[in-house]
Design a protein that fits this description.
Oligomer: single chain
Strand content: under 5%
Shape: globular
Number of helices: 16
Structural class: mainly alpha
Strand order of the largest sheet: 1-2
Helix content: over 70%
Amino acid sequence: MNIVTQGKKERPTNILTEGKTLLTVNIRQYGMYIALFVIMLTFSILTDGLFMSSRNISNLLDATGYIAVLAVGMTLVIVIRHIDLSVGFAAGFLGAIAAILLSQAGVPVYLTIPIILVLGIVVGLFNGVLVASLGIPSFVASLAGMLIFRGALLRVTEKTGTIIVKDEHFNALGNGYIPSLFKLDDLNFLSLVLGLFVILLFIYFEFSKRRNKIKYQFEVISKGMFTVKLIFVSAIIAYITYIISGYNGFSWTVIIMLGVVIIYHFLTTSTVLGRHIYAVGSNPEAAHLSGINVKKITYIVFGSMGLLSALSGILFTARLQSATTTAGTLFELDAIAAAYVGGVSAAGGVGKVTGSIIGAIVMASLSSGMNLMGVGISYQYMIRGGVLAIAVIFDVMTRRKRG
């Protein structure tokens, strides 16, 4: 028998019953993890294990990186009940500017990256001003931005069509891997250490969060279920680390993606700013009456989206080692899809950045698995669209039940 602490009351519960209850109550949060597990298991069986090979998983995560970064920013935008359609071509345009600075202006990489990130913030703040100060609907404001950046991208690339980037340090962001130091049974040792660090970090934050909840007499799961959760998640992280370490180890793209997730997860769950963002998303009027500066939060969220658009453009340009006229096409739709599949509510106020990353991996896994099986691109679009529709339908039905 185990104990679940709820305020000052303690009640005994069976761990299986508790697990079923937690799954039912938090189906929105856990559903995407179950879906990812089912997708990976299915494709592993259908491809005779090729899907879960070290090379494929590594390539899958690398290909997800620039969309996952956008999905993190898009999560916050949707949480405050807005949308940003400009992020795709903004990423493509800013990536092209980075290529021009590196290849034509001779600006060193250590200056180019900060310049592009600052430009991204400026772009995001411009959208924020249109939405928060002028009252233009975010759909219309960002649609205008999308057209502007698409034209700007065509303008800066029209002479050559493609701008080649030869800077090795910049290109390593999209194609390089962290050094191994030395091989341990053909595994990347530093990647194994990094995986262990992530596990320890996860355990530390879980214990810290549990202690705080008990301190303020909030409900917590039983010790048995808490232990099961720690073991299960740690085992998944260890397994993925083991797979990736068998093929060059963690790429710099994945490291950057993990860094973004950790930073934004901390900001949204452990800071006053994060609480204000979710308060605005839940009820903007009530948030304003409680003293929260709704315009300021809107500026911050759109500025953050611009920053991550710039980072996404850098990663994509580095991955291709060039800037092209089609860079950024449909990025915004992939990011929105990843956010919704990851559990963000269309009504605002609900959603986690970690969920959006899982959503991005789910969509990338579908594409990767279907490519390995030789499924036609037409069917791939239809299947991915169906998955997105199911995710939104599930969100609507869940809110109706709670209502």
